[in-house]
Write a structure and sequence with these properties.
Layout: H1 2-6, H2 11-17, H3 44-51, H4 66-79, E1 83-87, H5 90-101, E2 107-111, H6 116-129, E3 132-136, H7 142-146, E4 152-158, H8 170-179, E5 183-187, E6 205-209, E7 223-227, H9 229-243, H10 249-260, H11 262-281, E8 288-290, H12 300-306, E9 313-317, H13 321-329, E10 335-336, E11 346-349, H14 360-365, E12 372-376, H15 382-393
Parallel strand pairs: 2-3, 2-4, 4-5, 5-6, 10-11
Antiparallel strand pairs: 1-7, 6-7, 8-9, 9-12, 11-12
Helix pairs in contact: 4-10, 5-9
The structure holds pyridoxal-5'-phosphate.
């Protein structure tokens, strides 16, 4: 069994081999893309047992499929969870998770600085189901406890947060959640399991946009939830069966292929980002750099405690909206685009792009000022990335 061969092995080995039990796939080294929508039953009794989830098997690809399962096994191994479920996008994973854990009139506590569509989803849940969210400064973990009410069910975390790179003390929030019998849900997209293991710190559900680092090549849209078997099966059988936000077999295959080079890519993302952050910090046109691996980050010590590496994401500030626009409009190598975690470097100007829909006062509260840029540092030669920034910074 491949699972036995990789037990207790280092992350690099696990990422190359996990989910690839070749005996189950006629010796194919790459788990094939099972494009079947439906699966034949041996007989009515077995069909019924598979259909009810009583025995293992496949019957319809909205529930699962062998390519999807290979990916889910790999994600389970990377995040050190009990089980995983893959979805059609990161947002499908987040909405599925919240709709599984919450019911009408429940309450969530979440960071002010958070991925903008997640924040909008919280607004949607309030308008439709009266599930309201209190947004807090999650750099102060005591804020979670302060806002707990008898309706609170979920403490939501995103650390490092999009786009400000603010951190939350995961262990402290988990302690609060346990004391009040609440669930913790954490978006680990920015850090990735290469750098941070929330489940090992006691988090109940880890979310990923696989679209980012895990896929790694800007060619898929996918998401995942990793957690206990019980929660994952609830998400699969009680929620996604009806919502239908399942990952397509071809997408699952691409995500799984991405995982094989994931550790290698992350090593380079981490080392490039640190060097780019150091360069930006010493540049006179840059007002501030937010990167958890810099000693100037206000939560540098927390980063050292709860992260193994500091990731490929940097936020930095130039002087106002026009300077931000001029910079991004004059880059030659670094691409102006939303999204992140690709092998190539990508930049975006939050105030005029991803967070343009967030009202200015809320943007400011979350630390997203007009000159804030978010850079996803790729795996190109680091000098090429730095030189591109250098020539564009000259123009602002
Ligand atoms: N979480 C974070 C931190 C993100 O940055 C994103 C997308 O940018 C998402 C979730 C949503 O993922 P997707 O675009 O795959 O739905």
């Amino acid at each position: 069994m491949r699972d036995k061969a990789i037990k207790d092995k280092d992350f690099e080995t696990v990422s190359v081999h996990s989910g690839t039990d070749i005996k189950d796939h006629f010796g194919a080294l790459s788990v094939p893309i099972y494009n079947a929508s439906t699966y034949a039953f041996e007989n009515a009794q077995k069909g019924s047992a598979i259909h009810e989830g009583e025995i293992k098997g496949y019957f319809y690809s909205r529930i699962n499929n062998p390519t999807q399962e290979a990916l889910e096994l790999a994600l389970t191994a990377l995040e050190e969870g009990e089980a995983a479920i893959a979805f059609s996008s990161g947002m499908a994973a987040i909405s599925n998770c919240l709709l599984t854990l919450l019911k009408r009139d429940d309450h969530i506590i979440a960071p002010q600085s958070i991925y903008a569509s997640t924040s909008s989803l919280f607004g949607f849940l309030e308008a439709k189901f009266g599930i309201n969210t209190t947004f807090i400064d999650a750099t102060e973990s005591s804020q979670y406890q302060k806002h707990i009410t008898n309706r609170t069910k979920v403490l939501y975390l995103e650390s490092p947060a999009n786009p400000t790179l603010k951190l939350t003390d995961i262990k402290v929030v988990v302690e609060i959640a346990k004391a009040f019998k609440l669930k913790t849900v954490m978006d680990n997209t920015f850090a990735t399991p290469f750098n941070q293991h929330p489940i090992a710190m006691g988090v109940d559900a880890v979310i990923h946009s696989l679209t980012k680092y895990i896929g790694g090549h800007a060619d898929i849209l996918a998401g995942a939830l990793i957690g206990s078997k019980e929660l994952v099966e609830q998400c699969r059988w009680n929620t996604n069966k009806y919502l239908g936000g399942v990952i397509a077999p071809h997408t699952a295959w691409l995500a799984h292929r991405g995982i094989k080079t994931f550790a290698l890519r992350m090593e380079k993302h981490n080392s490039n980002a640190l060097k780019v952050a150091q360069f930006l910090e010493n540049h006179p046109k840059v007002i501030k750099v937010h990167y958890p691996g810099l000693p100037s980050h206000p939560q540098y010590h927390l980063a050292k405690e709860q992260m193994k590496g500091y990731g490929g994401m940097i936020a930095f500030e130039v002087n106002g909206i026009e300077a931000g626009r001029t910079l991004v409009n004059n880059l030659n190598l670094i691409t102006l685009a939303v999204s992140l975690g690709d092998v190539s470097s990508i930049i975006q100007h939050s105030a005029s792009m991803t967070h343009a829909s967030v009202p200015e006062n809320l943007r400011e509260k979350a630390g997203i000022n007009d000159g804030l840029l978010r850079l996803s540092v790729g795996i190109e030669r680091v000098d090429d990335i730095i030189n591109d920034l250098k020539q564009a910074l000259k123009l602002i």
